[in-house]
Amino acid sequence: MGNQILAASVLMAIAGGMVASQAPINAALGRGIASPIGAATLSFGVGFVILVVATLLMGDGPNLLRVTKVPVWMLIGGALGAVYVVAALWSVPKLGVLTTTTLMIFGQMGAALLLDHLGAFGVAQSSISPMRILSAGLVAVGVILSRW
Which UniProt keywords apply (predicted)? Predict the structure, then answer.
């Protein structure tokens, strides 16, 4: 395994732990302020401030002005993230962190199979195969097991 592949694998494992932690933290914030949507707003606000500071510190501030040159559909990622944050903070108290996270991963895998197969949004095309379906199926089994 190359260094970049190892680094990316470690980084994503750490990020996955952060996503699992984000949902219950945001759910607690939602309870604390008595507003799930308000909690999502605050969560995105904090993230926005951190990203703006990081962008400016890295000297990439002027690149933000290029947003006027990209198709509007490319901005939908923020909306998708907002739906995830609200769905997760609403679901954690009802399903628990493990089941919520497992369902999120299952949904990601289903979408990823399709996006890879289509080569959507400029990603390398990778056909759906029995092994790839099996990997998503095993996560589906994990969803069921997480409820026992």
Answer: Membrane, Transmembrane, Transmembrane helix
